[in-house]
Write a structure and sequence with these properties.
This protein is α/β, with parallel strands linked by helices. It contains 11 helices and 7 strands. A 5-stranded mixed sheet has the order 2-1-4-3-5, with helices on both faces. A two-stranded antiparallel ribbon has the order 6-7. One of its GO terms (cellular component) is chromosome.
């Protein structure tokens, strides 16, 4: 049975709804119920779409247009309550890394980096998260966890400088990112910048887990699983899994797996 959103769209626009329209019914019902929603990329993945389907008009134009039309015509702006993923690009964004009474997450601009070099630390085991939205959602669900937002591929000098300083102070990092060619390349680049133990850096996103996740949860896309150049053998192994299976997995698909793995990793000494 077509939903009231779909019926109204067809009646008022005279257009056929996209074939994936029904997947958004649950999302629209949650908005109508006043629920706080995860970041938009997480919403898309939970609806069975790729992460950028609801915030990038080029990813899936028909779905994007339908989604935007329903938001504009069936809800007020105040009704849409979602955790934002728009974080400042030229900054160091973290949660529960430094010992401070300031509200978390903490956003440091490049001028503050030097002053943080010897600032007291709250934790010495920290998870780096590639995507803004996943960082924001994990922090919302687990406000006590020590997280750093890697901000996609934004390797600004201030970010790298502070990360290297934390390594010298004995901080242990592990990394979680998209399992596609570009995501593996980003992880490889950061590992090279920090020059730390590859085994610990991939303790959660291990080659075995990568193969399992792309096999069980992967989506087909030749462009996102194309061969690219990486330096670390561990990431070459993970890249080989993508190109062999020819499937990718987005971070938003792995929240449940992340929660179990992170909980256990943080308990290690």
């Amino acid at each position: 049975m077509p939903s009231r959103y779909l019926k109204r769209y067809v009646a008022e626009t005279g257009k056929a709804a996209p074939k994936e329209a029904a997947r958004l019914d649950s999302l629209f019902n949650r908005i109508a119920a006043g629920e706080t929603l995860p970041p938009r990329g997480q919403q898309a993945v939970e609806a069975g779409l790729t992460a950028h389907s609801l915030n990038d008009a080029q990813e899936n134009p028909a779905v994007y247009d339908y989604y935007q039309w329903v938001l504009a015509h069936c809800f007020t702006e105040q009704q849409v309550d979602e955790v934002p993923a728009k974080l400042i690009g030229m900054a160091f964004i973290c949660a529960n890394v430094f010992e401070t009474d300031l509200p978390q997450p903490l956003t440091l601009n490049p001028w503050q980096i030097t002053a943080m070099a010897d600032f007291p630390l709250r934790h010495h085991r920290i998870i780096i998260v590639e995507n803004n939205g996943v960082f924001a959602w994990l922090h919302r669900r687990h406000p006590e966890w020590p997280l750093i937002d890697q901000s996609g591929n934004d390797f600004n000098s201030a970010y790298v400088m502070l990360m290297r300083t934390l390594v010298k102070r004995g901080v242990h990092f592990t990394y979680l990112g998209d399992l596609d060619s570009r995501g593996i390349q980003i992880a490889d680049h950061l590992l090279n910048e920090l020059a730390i133990d590859p085994a610990e850096f991939t303790a959660l996103q291990s080659p075995a887990n990568v193969l399992k996740w792309v096999t069980l949860k992967g989506k087909s896309d030749s462009q996102r699983t194309r061969p690219v150049t990486v330096k670390a053998p561990v990431f070459q192994q993970e890249l080989n899994s993508l190109t062999l299976v020819k499937k990718f997995v987005e971070q938003e698909q792995l929240i449940t797996e992340y929660e179990e793995l992170i909980t256990a990793w943080l308990k290690l000494k």
